[in-house]
Amino acid sequence: MSSHTHPISLQAGDALLIVDVQSDFLAGGSLAVPRGDEVIAVLNGYLAAFQQARLPVLATRDWHPSDHCSFLPQGGPWPPHCVAGSAGANLAPGLKLPADVSVISKATDRSRDAYSGFEGTELDRLLREAGVRRLFIGGLATDYCVLNTVGDALKLGYQTVLLQDAVRAVDVHPGDGARAMGQMLEKGAMAVTLKQIRVVST
Predict the structure, then answer these.
(1) Which of 20, 24, 143, 165 is catalytic?
(2) Residues 50-65: what's their mean pLDDT?
(3) DSSP state of 18
(4) pLDDT averaged over the chain?
(5) Could you give the CA distance from residue 81 to residue 59 in angstroms, rounded to a whole number?
(6) Is 171 noted as a catalytic residue in this protein?
(7) Catalytic one among 62, 113, 143, 145?
(8) DSSP 33-76
(9) Residue 1: pLDDT above 50?
């Protein structure tokens, strides 16, 4: 259950999944994650490694209708955020995403929320078609969409690697992020940091 400290070599069957790094979850956004902006530079390091290794990169995004059930006016817990087509729903402009990134829109149905990138999306199909067996996951927020996406990845049988230096928590209740991190590791995720990642030149 501990974080591993040995190097991890990227290989065929690996993919990088960036969860919900969208403007509304960053500083100045309608649902800003504390220190959420800090993940961008670290994720760019992972992006560079995966592009160098010519491995697939995917990104999930909340893509809500304007009257989504998770919004306060509809009785949900959150202020309106990531409304489809709005500036706040854009992936962070600072992310150096490859041209061929697969973008997965989730929580697009007004009556259903989806914290996991797998819920109601084609993510699992895309990964299987690409032959992905090991999934490296980072983004926002540790205690919601990252937690649920990692949980589903493990349930679906992917080796799951949590990018512990590229996640930040909402921490509605102090310690939520740390608890979520513990839960993911208990379920079988492995935690790594960028300095452990190696690209083996072919």
Answers:
(1) 20
(2) 98
(3) E
(4) 96
(5) 17
(6) no
(7) 145
(8) PTTTTHHHHHHHHHHHHHHHTT--EEEEEE-B-TT-TTBGGGT-
(9) no
Q: How far apart are CA 138 and CA 189, in angstroms?
A: 12
Active site residue 20: yes
CA neighbours closer than 13 Å in the CB half-sphere of residue 9: 5
Q: Where are the domains of the chain?
A: 8-199
pLDDT digits (tens, 9 = 90+) for 137-188: 999 999 999 999 999 999 999 999 999 999 999 999 999 999 999 999 999 9
106, 113, 143, 152: the active-site residue: 106
For the chain, how many residues are written? 202
Residue 111 CB burial class (10 angstroms; 0-12, 13-18, ≥19): exposed
Quickly state the pLDDT bin for 116 (edges 50, 70, 90): very high
CATH architecture of 8-199: 3-Layer(aba) Sandwich (3.40)
- Tell me: pLDDT of 64 over 90: yes
- Peptide bond before 191: cis, by omega within 30 degrees of 0? no
Residue 51 has pLDDT above 60, yes or no: yes
Strand partners, 184: none
